[in-house]
Design brief:
By secondary structure, this protein is of the alpha+beta class. It is built from three helices and eleven strands.
């Protein structure tokens, strides 16, 4: 879900008048974040891509952040390629000391992470790494991305890499274009509180779409 995709989603919401289905999240709990040395990386870690699907597939990803742990239960066999790719990156330390680079808090409610460059266009740098297909798209559900959903970011079909987004408020106006690979089982209150802090420059599509005002550093991701 790179910048152009969210921009289109926001314009579509405005054009169609979708508002009641994407109400702002309720007031978030207090947030306590530590200082972090995570920052945009000019030279992301070079990770060799996997050659086959993992077996068994990972069941949880724990994002260890400066604001607390966010635990994600995976969808398992519904997204085997996605989980294999993400687990390979996470276990190799690709996400260590990176920052979540984007927050949208109007119309849709997402915190986007996984780009080590924090530019919105970063991903795996190994030349043998190839973008991979979408899986587990929410084709038949009008409630496509409820709060707690975790999905891949992309810029169109077959463009998945390392970026993903955490949905902290029901975002049913998003198109059914993003691989859902997990659900937040612990730490959703943390993401909601980060969302409540709003955005700061650089802004991508107005004041409700920009860099999170609260710096969110991923210290590491634990895969089980």
């Amino acid at each position: 879900m790179k910048r152009v995709v969210i921009a289109i989603a926001i314009l579509a919401l405005a054009a169609t008048g979708i508002s009641s289905a994407t109400a702002a999240p309720k007031k978030a709990a207090a947030l306590s974040c530590k200082a972090t040395t995570a920052k945009p990386q000019l030279n992301p870690k070079d990770v060799v891509p996997p050659t086959k699907e993992m077996s068994p597939l990972p069941t949880t990803f724990t994002l260890v952040t400066n604001c607390g742990n966010i635990v994600i239960k995976t969808v398992g066999s519904k997204a085997p390629i996605t989980l294999t790719q993400l687990a390979t990156l996470a276990k190799a330390g690709f996400y260590n000391k990176t920052v979540c680079h984007r927050l949208v808090n109007s119309g849709i409610f997402v915190l986007q992470c996984g780009d080590p460059t924090a530019s919105g266009s970063g991903g795996p740098v190994n030349p043998n790494w190839r973008a991979y297909p979408d899986e587990n798209l929410p084709f038949f559900s009008p409630r496509k991305y409820p709060a707690g959903t975790v999905a891949m970011a992309n810029s169109g079909p077959y463009t998945n890499g390392s970026q993903f987004f955490l949905v902290y408020g029901d975002s049913f106006g998003l198109p059914a274009n993003y691989t859902i690979w997990g659900t937040i089982t612990s730490g959703l209150d943390i993401v909601k509180a980060i969302g409540a802090k709003g955005t700061k420059a650089p802004l991508f599509n107005g004041p409700n779409d920009g860099t999170p005002a609260q710096t969110v550093g991923i210290e590491k991701i634990i895969v089980n």
